[in-house]
């Protein structure tokens, strides 16, 4: 047991995997609490386990609570060993995010429960015992806090946040954060940039995003749309908006425009037309501020073309016709645009004729 001081939690939201959080436990400061946590993570039958348990409370800018392996409500979760939790209180400050804590005054009936801090809780330091800290996967906690809606009065999540797997890691054991299949593909980067030690450098972000985009392009050419999308979306995360000065914003937005276009190219093949429309609208909004960008006319044309096709496939003949009408003015010799314009025009006229007939009958009937 003395060689185990790390545990992991694989997290999903609404059945969509978010990734793995790795927690370094303070086994020297609270050995019995850590022994209890390690055993619950180890999936040792017949002992209970955190596997498939849920986050039961999210208090924004404060904490995320979990660990009730009995009810997933915050009302259960017995400790496995006979010890008094309060005797392992120590003075580690509770002054930052990503700390793993348990309540000092918890009873044996719910002492499997724990929380992760999402802000400075130093004003509550007498209430919590800090038992560890997240060392990898911090961005997963951020996504849970910011992206999962809650019932305001209770903090109960309105969608399932599940620990689909968990485990205890031996000293020196690979933590499994990097997917081995991704590494074999040439993707050696964490899923989210807040865990990449060098990601604060703009140049580093751009290099990583470019490599991921190129991997996505290779998969797209092989018609492996799922993997292409994974790489494009991951690249986009490395360019995610933060505090930027004007020069950084211009450069990053130009890279984002290209990635959004690539994602739209995947989505249109997957026939996710609502997503394509949303993506292309974003591209066209950004294009207005980057008129001097190299190749901007081609990017704008592709975005409007894909949006027009997606409008058509969703039965929005008018907006489809508007997009293709605008495109044909700027690309008068393009036969593909001309063909789509004709199809949109035919469907729009058919729709308008049908609507006219429908409304004309309304005034012919008597009450």
From TrEMBL:
Residue stretches of each TPR repeat: 209-242
Pfam families found in the cross-reference section: Pro_isomerase (PF00160)
Lineage, top ranks: Eukaryota, Discoba, Heterolobosea, Tetramitia, Eutetramitia
Organism domain of life: Eukaryota
UniProtKB keywords: Isomerase, Rotamase, TPR repeat
Enzyme Commission number: 5.2.1.8
Entries under SUPFAM superfamilies matching the protein: Cyclophilin-like, TPR-like
Protein name from the UniProt record: peptidylprolyl isomerase
Molecular function in Gene Ontology: peptidyl-prolyl cis-trans isomerase activity
Keyword Cell membrane: no
Residue ranges constituting the PPIase cyclophilin-type domain according to the UniProt record: 8-168
Catalytic activity: [protein]-peptidylproline (omega=180) = [protein]-peptidylproline (omega=0)
Any coiled-coil regions, as ranges: none
PANTHER family per record: PEPTIDYLPROLYL ISOMERASE (PTHR46512)
């Amino acid at each position: 047991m003395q060689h185990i001081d790390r545990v992991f939690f694989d997290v999903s939201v609404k059945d969509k995997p978010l990734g793995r959080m790795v927690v370094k436990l303070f086994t020297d400061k609270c050995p019995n609490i850590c022994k209890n946590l390690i055993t619950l993570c180890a999936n040792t039958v017949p002992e209970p386990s955190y596997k498939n348990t849920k986050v039961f409370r999210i208090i924004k800018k404060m904490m995320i609570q979990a660990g009730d392996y009995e009810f997933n409500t915050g009302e259960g979760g017995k400790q496995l060993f006979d010890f008094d939790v309060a005797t392992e209180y120590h003075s580690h400050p509770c002054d930052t995010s990503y700390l793993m804590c348990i309540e000092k005054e918890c009873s044996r009936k719910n002492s499997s429960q724990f929380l992760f801090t999402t802000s400075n809780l130093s004003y509550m330091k007498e209430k919590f015992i800090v038992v560890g800290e997240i060392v990898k996967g911090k961005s997963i906690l951020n996504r849970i806090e910011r992206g999962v809606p809650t019932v305001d009065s209770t903090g109960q999540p309105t969608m399932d946040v599940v620990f689909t797997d968990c485990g205890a890691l031996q000293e020196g054991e690979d933590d499994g954060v990097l997917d081995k299949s991704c590494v074999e593909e040439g993707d050696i980067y964490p899923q989210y940039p807040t865990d990449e030690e060098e990601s604060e450098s703009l140049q580093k972000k751009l290099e990583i995003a470019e490599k991921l985009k190129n991997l996505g392009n290779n998969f797209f050419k092989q018609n492996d749309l799922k993997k292409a999308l994974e790489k494009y979306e991951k690249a986009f995360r490395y360019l995610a908006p933060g505090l930027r000065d004007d020069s950084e914003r211009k450069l990053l937005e130009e890279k984002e425009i290209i990635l959004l276009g690539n994602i739209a190219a995947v989505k249109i093949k997957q026939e996710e037309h609502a997503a394509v429309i949303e993506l292309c609208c974003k591209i066209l909004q950004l294009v207005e501020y980057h008129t001097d960008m190299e190749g901007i006319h081609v990017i704008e044309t592709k975005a409007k073309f894909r949006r027009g096709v997606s409008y058509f496939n969703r039965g929005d003949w008018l907006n489809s016709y508007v997009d293709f009408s605008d495109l044909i003015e700027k690309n008068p010799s393009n036969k593909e645009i001309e063909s789509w314009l004709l199809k949109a025009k035919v469907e729009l006229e058919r729709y308008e004729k049908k609507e006219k007939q429908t409304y004309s009958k309304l005034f012919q009937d008597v009450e």
